[in-house]
Amino acid sequence: KLCGTNYPLSIAFIVVNEFCERFSYYGMKAVLTLYFVNYLHWDKDLSTAVYHAFSSLCYFTPVLGALIADSWLGKFKTIIYLSIVYIIGHVVKSVGAIPTVGDSTMHIVLSMLGLILIAFGTGGIKPCVAAFGGDQFEEENVIERRKFFSIFYMAINAGSVLSTIITPILRGDVTCFGDDCYALAFGVPAILMIVALAVFIGGSGMYKKTPPAGNVLLDVCKCIGFAIKKRSRSSKHDEKRKHWLDWAEEKYSKRLIEEIKMVLRVLLLYIPLPMFWALFDQQGSRWTLQATRMNMAFGDSFVVKPDQIQMLNALLILIFVPIFDIMVYPLVGRCGVNITPLRKMACGMIIAALAFAAATLVEVNVTKSVVEPAGPGECLVQVYNLMDGQVSLSGIDPLDKPIDSYQDPLQYERLSLGEQSRNLTVNARYLSPSTGSTAEINCTRLFAEQRAYSLVLYPATPGGMRCDLVEDHIDKAPSSSNVRFDVEADYRMSPSKNVTRDRYPAVSCESAPSISSSLDLGLLDFGASYTFILGAERFEDVEANHVHIGWQIPQYVLITVGEVMFSITGLEFSYSQAPGNMKSVLQAGWLLTVAFGNIIVLIVAEGAGLEQWAEFVLFACLLVAVSGIFSVMAYFYTYVDPSQLDKLYQDDSVVNRDGDSDGDDMPKVKMLEKKGKEDSQL
User: Fold this and answer.
1) Counting Cβ atoms within 10 Å, is residue 476 exposed (0-12), middle (13-18) or buried (19+)?
2) Each residue of 604-630: b (16+ CB within 10 Å) or e?
3) Are 424 and 445 in contact (CB under 8 A)?
4) pLDDT for 421-465, tens place per residue?
5) How far is CA 163 from the centre of its chain?
6) For residues 61 and 332, what is the distance between their CA atoms, to the nearest angstrom?
7) Would you call 23 helix, strand, or coil by DSSP?
8) Using 50, 70 and 90 to split pLDDT, how confident is the model at 647?
9) Strand 529-534 relative to strand 480-487: parallel, antiparallel, unpaired?
10) What integer best gives the mean pLDDT of the chain?
11) Which of 59, 512, 536, 589 has the CA that lies 20 to 30 A from 118?
């Protein structure tokens, strides 16, 4: 026992194991979307799709893990073996993030293989660890077991909060191989998973290990399959059944059939639920990508990483759960409002939809500072006039206008090419304000589709003019800015460099071995791209992120409130409406709703082709519609009391071979429903 209490010492090893495993999982997942975008160089839609495909697989595999544990290896061995698979996945994933290991194809292969192994590892042990912890208690220690699950839940959230703070720091603040250190950000979670396995094995001599006792999910599937087969083979002369599951009575007990009916009634309510998870799980994908285009500075000293903001959900849920249990729900009850579990869930869905309405408002404002990339058959162009007077352009329609000396271009102009690449000629005429002399050139350059360019006009020989075409970098850097320099003496544009967001009041510049000067570059802000003409001007090619990351807080507050009302209430409702031996079936069904929710995001991200704000609106509207359907289904649902089954079926054997179906079950069902209604009203 632990410190003389009724808590087994073995649960300390299980709680530490769960903390380390959750740190490992959420830490890796926190940086995953940015890894796809910045390291593998995938577009945002593909990155979102693969992220949610991985999340979906993580919630399909628990069913497999439960079958292995209950039917073959037992919980202890299943946790050991699948944790080894888990660690191998982390190691493979970390190796794939090392730039010197192979080419880009090798990085993709290793990354996908690692994620698949991680999904089987984390999903396989998910249904086993908590249940294994519960097995350590004696039957009479009900209160201690309940408190253990609260501690277990706290360990999960503590691991989530810490990992989503630490791993983005390892990614962004540590430089390895000349860039963000994704190898370290994935390697530390791998080490934590090794620690988790070592701690779990360390307590092996203290565990109570129950042997595999068969999986009730298989029994349920067999019973349903037998009933469907018998019904399909029945004739019109056979005795009618009040429910299609009653066709299984000749092989399975009436109690088992009644339990399955109760479970199916709850699973029917699960059908609309994936839509909630489709919105909820976008915190790590679409919302993180939205954060990369926002200003993340709190003053001059504290800067948040775009993948750190996810920790708000785990942090807020630790705050909101007791607030809702102690204050909100009792207060609503005192106001005379009968807020049943299903009503709470419907409210949670509406609040989650409001979270996406808030995300839409943020997205609309965020996109104002984003340069929309050129599509197929077109390119973007801006013009720098470095002459000492006005230059008039002609020959290309969007550029037919006068441009003042050193004028900062307000925006990129969109040129239609009609093909993948094309030579275009721009006529430029210059009038010297001091001498009155003129210069004229025809500048012919090759423009390629889906690129952004700067056309630079600068002095040549005395009184002359030259042109140059430079490719621009318009993508916003997640936590920095892009800077390039043009030396006024020879007008050669340097490559664009990624620079950390900061103020640069004194930058040393050497234009020749013996000539140096100090430049004040000012604040180089998040997401901006700058061009500096040394000795003259600073131009802002891409506007800095002007929407502060704090504007994401309301959507995180709303989605967390929705989770408290939907997820926690949903699990409590499901467990209250199913017999004790069927809770694993409902857990499997609940996890599958999360898996299917992620599949919905995958389909929309790859197939809808909508602008991001429109996609947020679509998800919000879909969830509102689904919540309406769920509310109608909930209205017709009748609460039952599964504990009454013990009284009603005391003499019912596990397998009924006599095929008797006398219809006596209906009064029992009515009694269950009546007792359930009384409990619900109470």
Assistant:
1) buried
2) bbeeeeeebbebbbebbebbbebbeeb
3) yes
4) 889 888 888 888 777 778 888 889 999 988 999 888 888 777 788
5) 15
6) 39
7) helix
8) low
9) parallel
10) 84
11) 589
Cβ–Cβ contacts within 10 Å for residue 35, how many? Answer: 25
Whether pLDDT at 298 is above 60: yes
pLDDT at position 665: 47
- Which DSSP string corresponds to 355-382? HHHHHHHHHHHHGGGSPPPP-TTEEEEE
Looking at 349-437, which runs of residues are DSSP E strands? 378-385, 391-394, 402-403, 413-416, 421-431
Confidence of residue 33 (pLDDT cuts 50, 70, 90): very high
The count of C-alpha atoms lying within 13 angstroms of the C-alpha of 648, restricted to the half-sphere facing its C-beta, is 23
Closest CA to 121 of 22, 51, 35, 198: 22
Enumerate residues 6+ apart whose C-beta is below 8 A from 619.
278, 279, 282, 353, 356, 604
Closest CA to 23 of 178, 136, 188: 188
- pLDDT, tens digit, for every residue of 337-383? 888 889 999 999 999 999 999 999 999 999 888 888 888 889 999 88
* Structure-token pair, residue 281: 């799980």
User: Beta partners for 384?
Assistant: 456
Quote the tokens at residue 318: 């630790």
Sign of the torsion formed by the C-alpha atoms of 67, 589, 328 and 317: positive
Task: Give me the residues paired with residue 403 across strands.
Answer: 391
- Interatomic CA distance for residues 235 and 247, integer angstroms: 12
Residues in the chain, total: 682
Cα separation, 209 vs 118, in Å, equals 25
DSSP-based helix, strand, coil % in the chain, nearest 5: 55, 15, 30
Helix (H, G, I), strand (E, B) or coil at 141: coil
Q: What gap in Å lies between CA 460 and CA 6, rounded to an integer?
A: 88
**Neighbour tally for 49: CB within 10 Å:** 22
Alpha-carbon distance of 222 to 627, in angstroms, equals: 33
Enter the tokens of residue 486: 């043009």
Say what angle helices 254-270 and 612-635 make with each other, to 10 degrees.
Answer: 140
Can you tell me the mean pLDDT for 495-501? 77
At 192 the three-state DSSP class reads helix
- What pLDDT digit, counting tens, does each position of 500-555 carry? 777 877 777 776 666 666 777 788 888 888 887 766 677 888 888 889 999 999 99
Helix orientation angle between 341-366 and 569-576, rounded to the nearest 10 degrees: 160
Residue 563 main-chain phi, psi, to 5 deg: -65, -45
Helix ranges (DSSP H) in 396-501: none
Residue 111, both tokens: 């990354």
Classify strands 413-416 and 378-385 as parallel, antiparallel or unpaired: antiparallel
Report how far residue 307's alpha carbon sits from residue 29's, in angstroms, rounded to the nearest whole number. 10
Position 374, amino acid: A
